[in-house]
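Dear support,

We are seeing what looks like truncated structure output for some complexes. This example has two components. We would appreciate it if you could run it in full and send us the complete token output so we can diff it against ours.
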Amino acid sequence: GENVEQHPSTLSVQEGDSAVIKCTYSDSASNYFPWYKQELGKGPQLIIDIRSNVGEKKDQRIAVTLNKTAKHFSLHITETQPEDSAVYFCAAPVYSGGGADGLTFGKGTHLIIQP
Amino acid sequence: EAQVTQNPRYLITVTGKKLTVTCSQNMNHEYMSWYRQDPGLGLRQIYYSMNVEVTDKGDVPEGYKVSRKEKRNFPLILESPSPNQTSLYFCASMSLYEQYFGPGTRLTVT
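Here is the complete output from our reference environment:
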């Protein structure tokens, strides 16, 4: 089955600097890569995703890049702000013979924005 | 408002006392899932359901049961809870690929 590795487990950056979180996956058939943000006391929420037919996708200060050859994808947050402090999860689909059976998640990255 | 609800949000119980955590979604999604979240281990899937009366084991199903009698509800049952089931639990429903998570249930088993 799909195996997703996420690094680093904790990332501390100064407010205004950029943050990058990286994930690798194992199943070459995977074609969808979402990122979830979990704020304290809440469930994870989808913030951005990318499909395998593109190499990069941006949404204001966040972007995701995908390298299908190397089987890795990354989340980039620019001009970080205090409200970016959270736990971030990457994920990839789990496939069975009939199609996608859900998502498998990385172990998460605790992003800390230092004032 | 589209949402996934869970109850209770917090629960402290004793070893062996059966409990049920309810989960409900109002988005008419066929796929629902339960996860537990533990420090350093991320989100691990317990059980999932592709549709009514169809359930399958995830990565960590031992000690848990689920049922899916209606599309909107997917309760998680702990027949005989043990301290190693102390965790933060999330229910989720999925449309195509996007998962919508509930607010979480923090369970402590003493």
